[in-house]
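[job 0412] stage=complex_fold ligand=zinc ion status=START
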Amino acid sequence: MNAVLVLNADLGPLHRVSLRHALRMLWRQVAVVHESEPDQAIGVWPMPKVVRLVSYVVTRWRYHGGPAWSRRGVLARDQHRCAYCGGPAYTIDHVLPSSRGGRNTWLNTVAACGGCNQRKGDRTPAEARMPLRFHPATPSWTVLAKR
Ligand SMILES: [Zn+2]
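[job 0412] stage=complex_fold status=DONE, emitting structure tokens
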């Protein structure tokens, strides 16, 4: 049963965990009891209803789908290889061009060399007959960390 609500250090609610998990957090001193059941104790702690993290957790990537988009991140994810020809890439190409509503997202951007970027222009890969060598995906935090 997920009985205990976990609050971030700034009191923003994060998620619910089992009592067991909550006790482990208390024991490891990553969280403290924020609200407890009256007159109930478990070991040395009051029975927690709500626990609060001791240090702030950046929720942007930790709990909500992946790291924030960045040009640098796209190049790191694609290992500076052009998504069209495989050559060294230093620019970002929008799969659906930004002039046509393509956004800065992990799935809509790839690393591309200057030549391919220019040749593709304001076209989709299909229109330009330039198939992608891989499907862009949201990178893991680890991939971005070890660039
Ligand atoms: Zn290229």
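The pocket of zinc ion is lined by residues 82, 84-85, 87, 112-113, 115-116 (CB under 6 Å).
[job 0412] exit 0
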